[in-house]
Design goal:
Blueprint: H1 2-24, H2 28-42, H3 48-58, H4 65-87, H5 127-147, H6 151-165, H7 172-190
Amino acid sequence: MVEQQEASGDAVMTRIGQAIMLLHGGDREEARNRFGALWSELGADGDALHRCTLAHYMADTQDDPGDELAWDLRALTAAEGLRAAEGAGGSEAGGAGTGTAEGAGASDVPGGAEGADGGPVAEHPDIPAVRAFYPSLHLNLAADYLKLQRPESARIHLQRARAAAESLADDGYGGGVRAAIDRLELRMREQ
């Protein structure tokens, strides 16, 4: 039974990856259609990592900046839902709420939250992947708010992106996200 669930989880991520390849290949409409069908299949109670990943990329298929923002907010909500579920019984450093400037994406306590007995709670297996998404999630939100001429909201999410990027490795992905944060910050200064 567990193997079937893992296989189906892999199948969903494979399908998300196929739609991402369509998006990166320039077929935004087909990617949007596939993401939409997958979103309907997953539903509101679907796997948080799948919903986060799908919404994160679905935002990139949108023509309207308001729709793009809505999908990026869905991605962040899915990520925070996973962190909140893991932290239910203990507190995480940095918090997971959207309402705090140092919230989602701030550095976490290694090993996860504390349980009711004060001992460590095992980290959900998707937490590292979701944690790696936070800088990009907040960067996208900052860009969305800038497009919508909401510079204060853009600044808040740019700060959150920068704080979350501290946890990224010094590799191609981490360097690319940090460079994108720098570019958006420069663009905001010039406006």
